[in-house]
Amino acid sequence: MIIVMKADVPPESEEVRQVVRMAERYPDVHAEVRQIQGSTRSLTEIYLIGSTASIATEPFEEFPAVEKAIRIRERYRSIGRHDRSEVLGFEYRGVEFSQDTLHVFPGLCAVDTRENVEAMFRLLKEHGVRTTRAGAYKPRTSPYDFQGYGSQCLPYVFELAGKYDIAVIAMEITSEAQVAEIRAALDDAGDPTGVMLQIGTRNAQNFELLKMVGSQTDFPVLFKRGMGITLDESLNACEYIASGGNNKIVFCLRGMKSNFGDPHRNFVDFSHVPVVKRLTRLPVCVDPSHSVGKKAIAPDGLLDIHHATAQGIIAGANMVLVDFHPRPEEALCDGPQALLFHEFDFFMKDVEIVRRAYLERCKLAAG
Ligand code: PEP
Ligand code: MN
């Protein structure tokens, strides 16, 4: 059961203590207090853990400071919507992430030279985009492939992010040591930007890694769906992050590994955007670059990557991760799927058209 307190009742208040005391009077029930920091307000929730099946919700709802008591039937205790209608989202570095917002994260799949990072960030600044992706640590299928420049490139990535006014960089990590390196490099650079820690599809069930990013709240987490596991398994993986206390999570669809998706790199799964939004409170990201994996063009003049992006946005996606590179033939990772700089303007305009269409559809549905 979850007891949702009224808006802005702080977790350390007497009102919360009263509820906890009453809950713990029941045998084998333990109460856990959580503060959910939304983008505009915070919410205190009390989780009753243990034998709660026979406990009535009404006595809790009689407390004036209690908004409602919810019996959880579904599995996703922390990330799930249950019947919590309010979807809070979160704010990070002045950027709001929720199921209502949309942010595009165009950037380099893997960081290479300082010049390319600067060219990328300059392009973003010219278009007023303050969110990007930049891979420093690259877990690769083969140990002989480029593994990313790691901590070596962080100083210039962060320095340039400051110079070009980048607010948030999505960056994959595979270990706690890498998070420490990011933290130290941000400190050294004078904290010029924010980092969203990306859990790659290959680590979707690396439970120790999930618990680690869940036990810190400095950085939000971009969780990429496991490429060969069910949606339920991926949502449970997010539950590992959220149950550790970090509810700043974005769930990313990036295609499923299957030959049924041929000739695309992965089988595009963006029809799951509304499913994830219905089952959870998480903003949903789509990654058309890693889903499609190539720059094939359709007879209508649109790249398959454009089509996949539009499919994600028309379904209500809240974030788009997309690879660009000034010279894809020289890229050290995933060059064949990188869009070119002269394609940037088109890409952003296309996103805008589809987003507008999505919002109109919502209006129509609302009557
Ligand atoms: C990436 O975004 O660079 C990446 C490796 O993605 P995924 O984990 O989805 O393969
Ligand atoms: Mn990649």
Architecture overview:
The protein is an alpha/beta fold and about 375 residues long. It has two domains: about 1-70, Phospho-2-dehydro-3-deoxyheptonate aldolase, domain 1 (Alpha-Beta Plaits, 2-Layer Sandwich), CATH 3.30.70; about 90-365, Alpha-Beta Barrel (TIM Barrel), CATH 3.20.20.70. It has helices at about 15-25, 60, 115-125, 155-165, 175-190, 205-215, 230-245, 275-280, 290, 305-315, 345-365, and strands spanning about 1-5, 30-35, 40-50, 65-70, 90, 95, 105, 130-135, 170, 195-200, 220-225, 250-255, 285, 320-325. A hairpin with a 2-residue loop joins β5 and β6 (about 95). α6 (about 205-215) crosses α7 (about 230-245) and α10 (about 305-315) packs parallel to α11. The longest helix is centred in the C-terminal third of the chain and has 23 residues, at about 345-365.
CATH topology category name of the largest domain: TIM Barrel
List the helices and strands in order.
Answer: EHEEHEEEEHEHEHEHEHEHEHHEH
Name of the CATH homologous superfamily of the largest domain? Aldolase class I
Specify the number of helices. Answer: 11
Ranges with pLDDT <50 over ≥5 residues? none
Please state the second-level CATH architecture of the largest domain.
Alpha-Beta Barrel
The total count of strands amounts to 14
CATH C-level label of the largest domain: Alpha Beta
Helix/strand-derived class? alpha/beta
Percent of residues in helices comes to 25-40%
- Termini gap: 34 Å
